[in-house]
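Example for tutorial group B:
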């Protein structure tokens, strides 16, 4: 009981029409999930960036710690040498012989040199600490910005989730009802194609030139035989593209393009 408008309705629908109806619901659900997926991906990127900054921050902090320790050690060494020099100065005053005095003088010079080295080392370590602290401040600023972006990403993801949930549940219910009406083998074919080809599981026939019987697949653009198209037009037979294997259907544009000329005139007259 193909109605006057061409499209059969309800239980009288042919297998291709039933599949297409189900496919459109699937496509909507996939589109919604796709939007959630991109929000999830963006959030994951932000989390990763944040973790990288945290790792850098931790490395710099441990650098500061060991530089401070090195500076402290050098500082301590300098003090120890200073104390030793004070002792020697006292001993020099008490020196009994020139030889003794000379020996103290030599030690004093060595101590002075060593102390100078220790002070330089302490100073260098502190200069490096300042440097690393500057880098730390930069990383902390970057981290704060990234953390803000991540918070926005979480909000965005949650919003997307909430936004699609209601609609997704609706589509899920619709999908179940529609799937129950599709023959099992056709349904399993559609599911396989959806898994492997996504939105190209089904594609409309494109009427390139009706007079010359030039038809192509809406998914892969390869040509489709006139027999395949007439099978679809007359019985809505399950028809697959010979190239990409998708299930073909006639969308409104194709149905209009395939209308017999008298019907088109009739439409134009109305
Ligand atoms: Zn194809």
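The residue assignment follows.
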């Amino acid at each position: 009981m193909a109605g006057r408008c061409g499209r059969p309705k309800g239980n009288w629908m042919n297998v291709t029409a039933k599949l297409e109806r189900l496919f459109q619901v699937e496509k909507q659900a996939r589109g919604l999930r796709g939007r959630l997926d991109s929000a999830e991906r963006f959030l994951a990127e932000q989390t990763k960036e944040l973790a990288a900054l945290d790792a850098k921050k931790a490395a710099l902090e441990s650098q500061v710690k060991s530089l401070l320790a090195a500076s402290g050690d050098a500082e301590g060494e300098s003090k120890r040498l200073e104390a030793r020099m004070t002792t020697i100065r006292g001993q020099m005053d008490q020196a009994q012989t020139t030889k003794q005095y000379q020996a103290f003088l030599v030690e004093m010079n060595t101590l002075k040199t060593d102390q100078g080295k220790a002070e330089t080392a302490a100073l260098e370590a502190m200069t490096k600490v300042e440097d690393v602290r500057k880098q730390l401040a930069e990383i902390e600023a970057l981290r704060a910005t990234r953390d803000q972006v991540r918070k926005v990403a979480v909000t965005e993801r949650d919003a997307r989730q909430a936004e699609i949930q209601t609609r997704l549940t609706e589509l899920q219910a619709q999908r179940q009802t529609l799937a129950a009406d599709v023959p099992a083998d056709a349904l399993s074919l559609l599911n396989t194609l959806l898994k492997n080809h996504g939105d190209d599981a089904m594609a409309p026939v494109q009427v390139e030139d009706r007079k010359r019987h030039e038809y192509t697949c809406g998914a892969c653009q390869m040509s489709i035989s006139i027999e395949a198209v007439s099978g679809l037009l007359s019985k809505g037979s399950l028809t697959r593209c010979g190239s990409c294997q998708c299930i073909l259907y006639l969308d409104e544009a194709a149905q209009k393009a395939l209308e017999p000329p008298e019907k088109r005139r009739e439409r134009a007259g109305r």
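The radius of gyration is 41 Å. Compare this with the pattern of hydrophobic and polar residues in the output above.
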